[in-house]
Prior knowledge:
Blueprint: H1 2-32, H2 35-48, H3 65-75, E1 81-85, H4 92-99, E2 106-110, H5 120-131, H6 143-160, E3 168-173, H7 179-195, E4 200-205, H8 209-212, E5 223-227, H9 233-247, H10 253-267, H11 271-281, H12 288-321, H13 329-337, E6 340-341, H14 342-348, H15 353-361, E7 369-371, E8 377-380, H16 383-393
Parallel strand pairs: 1-4, 1-5, 2-3, 3-4
Antiparallel strand pairs: 6-8, 7-8
Helix pairs in contact: 2-6, 5-6, 9-10, 9-11, 10-12, 11-12, 12-16, 13-16, 14-15
Amino acid sequence: MVSKNVYGFGTLVVGVISGILFYLSWRLDKKLREPETIVINATKALENSTVEIEEMDVLHFLERKNVFNSLEPTFKGYSSTAVVYGPRGSGKSTAVMHVFSNRKCVVTSTLPTDGESNTCVKDWASSVLDSLGIQNIPSGVDPLKILKESLVQFKAKGQKTSLKDLPIIIVEVDSRCEGQFLENLLLQTKYLGGDKNLANFVVVLSASRAAYNVNIGLDQLRAHAVLVDKLSDDEAKEYLRSCLMKTIKNLSDEEVEEVVNDALCKVGNLLLHLVSLCEDWLKCPGDKESLMNVSSLESGRILEIAKGCLLVFLNNLNKEHNIHRRELREEFLNLCMNKRKVSDFAEAIRLDKTSLVRLNSSVTPEHPFFVDLSSGLISVSSPHMKKAIKAVLN
């Protein structure tokens, strides 16, 4: 009888303790999910946030001093938003990450493009908070309001301590992004950065068509464009030379220069292509002739890709606008020699400029043309694409 009572009492005690622990856990979880607590945690995370990049090996790292100089106003907190654009494969994201890799208070985020344009800014704010380790925000809590309050608290705390620099928020925007999505984002970065002076923003565009279709000028949005272009000849040679000298040891200095100049002539200056070439170099025997043969093969591969992308563009043009390729030959060949205004080239091939930019950006992995945001000029995207145009349209 006694043992049964003891057993029953023990069960009761265990049940009470379990109930208390469950209640405390529930209270703690509720407290952590309250907006005030979320703001405090986000502010603390912002103080120690940094750009996390994998250790870069010789095949991927190249210091882009011109990119650093162009972003320096944002780096020092003098401007609101930098919009980084350039040809596909030019190394935009990598360059930006390295510019800010030695700073604290830097956060990476993405602009979601699979929802509605009127909610994309809130989705972006959730992405920023997620990077700060703030996840599963309760329904009914506005992530954009949480982000703003966190930045306000961070700035107030910085005024009392040594944290004088504004946070840098990097936003990756993929090639599917429409102009309205980007415009909504830039209006918000203008408000948080230009109007309230709470942060600086670096918006990295996978394709420039979104920015080209923004109806408000970048200057009105307190934003400036930063071009990350193909490598200069000196940068490309430095990159290739560094790869050869650090990974292939059996070449003389003269042979290295021969191989580098040969590769630059055959493959061009786009970082993506040079990375691929260096990776293939590491798989060959490593003598001069083998390395030059690899460069020739890489050049042929790039040309075939360019031809395929051009054919996709031409087929889409014919399908959507009933324009046959023979009608385009003269205009395309002229563009191979000289840049033109986007509106002029679009009119010459019987398109409006929005359709031209959209069709061009829809072709992957290489866009046939490159649209320069700053100048409003369009050009053929690469020497291999010029060869493709002459081969396909002749």
